[in-house]
Amino acid sequence: MSANEENSVTNTGQPLVLSIDLGKTSCRARLEDSRVVAEAHGPGAPGLADHNGAGLAFAAIENVVAQFSPSDRSRIGRVGIGAAGVEAGRDAARELCALVRGLVDAPVAVINDALAAHAGAFDGAPGAILIAGTGAILFAVSESGSVRQIDGWGPWLGDDGSGQWIGRHGLQAVLRAHDGRGQATALTDDVVHLAGQIEALPRWVSASGAPARQLGTFAPMVLSRAEEGDPISVQIVADATALLAETCMASGMVTVCVSGGLSAHPYFSTRMREALDAVGMRTVQARGDALDGSALVAARADLPYEERIIRG
Asked: CA within 20 to 30 Å of 67's CA: 9, 100, 262, 283, which one?
């Protein structure tokens, strides 16, 4: 018997909360009552502000929900979704809310994935959180309850220091070295491994139909090469963390919780702490994650960012 099936047997009757953390790279889902009943994960979606954002987001969510047993799905009593792009794609968020409500027949709350992470990190209390993943965004909630968004303007207008920013600058460095316009870098070997040859790199970036996400997949290679001492990669990471520290400093707070995929890399995490130290800020640990925040948003209507939540 699987863990999901075993939990279904031991947790019968009580309504479940379905929490979704939908990013551009991955989609995580969790069912819980007084404890975690089941978890699932799958690919993410480009973002609600992108073309067909609601449809692609719904497909990602439908995929993870289908991994739960029919008996667990029938017990879903409410749904909380943290999704990328809600702030810039409010109409798409409403469409997604309706689609998910039709799927599970339960009240649905949709919020920006970074705010879901904020809710989880601070249990609905004030604080600042930087989400540094494929994109980069900071949300600061003051003691008075005011909410500020800093950056998160997408790959073409912002997301400074993000995974796509690091990946893009790594690939640009390879092309500059290839042209004779820049210093040689160990990243060239990584690009040849990815694309087959340097000249095929533009096609590799666009092949998936989600270029920002594709660029972000190169960020771990830049981080690894920086950790090995490749000067070009070291400088890219230093520039990225300086930009992210600038974003944090703009919050006006002295502490920040750093989350997102980049923060899981030890080299990046160390450089990020150093960059924050340089601007007089320090990091704080999160109390919970984005799934905890999504569950909180589903359960409560008194959070400081209630007006930013789409409900249906």
From this structure: 262
